[in-house]
Amino acid sequence: MTPTVVHRAVLEAAQPYEFALSVRALEGFAPMAGEHRVAGGVVRRAFAHPDFTKAAAGAALVAEVGEAESGGVRLAVFAESALTFGEATAVERTVSEWLGLRDDLRGFHAVADADPAMAPLLRVARGLHQVRFPSLAEATVYFTLTQRSTQWFAGARRRRMAADLGPSLVVDDVVYRAFPALEVVAALPDERLLAYTGNPQRATRVREVAAGVAQLGERWLRAAPYCDVRQALLALPGVGTFTAEALLLRGLGRADEVPLEMRQFRLAAEQLYGTPAPSPADLRARYGPHIGWWSYVTRTALTWTQAPVPTPV
């Protein structure tokens, strides 16, 4: 059956928002390289069918997103069969989460506008919302694979899993592949996962973490208090501080905390503020629950601007 557009909608975005900045961020999002196509001002990528049974049988859909005149995002969904109202709503929610459309950055901007070092970044990134992993499953597996490995290997292994195990859909002669659900990954024997993990220990870890996150449930992970979710993730075998906080920020869009002590965040702070940079404690005190947005906007926009490093006072 030839896929057709089975659903259209305009997704609202919390303002300020610029779709062009989402596209720019997507093109620089290394873990998802090659997973979407950008042409003519629109982006296409695959998602698993919202009906788990159909997705497990290989059904996928392709979401096409572009700028809407209203300031939000226009959505067209390609599929091989019609979607129910509930399925269409689920797709809209998934795409909105992927592009961070509902992220309210007003509190972050209020603090950042009073931070002189942020001015050059905000000139190029005001209206940027956080582009996230398209699914919690993808984020969970990717960040588990990065443990004692490199981002390059983790990305390559994640892509192999999607190619072999994920549902797919062909639109305009292009094959789009989605990532398998957490439950699918958790059900795989370690011998099967070994083809994607490189060693038996990592295979066991991927399976256990996928099973643990699936059992917690995405709805609860998105809605429960941040501290409760962080504690629950840290209690899972194979999940440490970096994995838990990376999942919270890049998988779930929860910006309350960031491991600022890690090298990549220290370097970003030094590039922005000069040396010595504010300490993690100082940054947390200034940005509070918006520290995740500070880290995302800073690390993303620093690659977009050649803002001079300020001279230490």
From TrEMBL:
One of its GO terms (molecular function) is catalytic activity. Signal peptide: none annotated. GO terms for biological process: base-excision repair. Residues 172-307 form the HhH-GPD domain. This is 3-methyladenine DNA glycosylase/8-oxoguanine DNA glycosylase. It comes from Asanoa ishikariensis. The lineage of its organism: Bacteria, Bacillati, Actinomycetota, Actinomycetes, Micromonosporales.
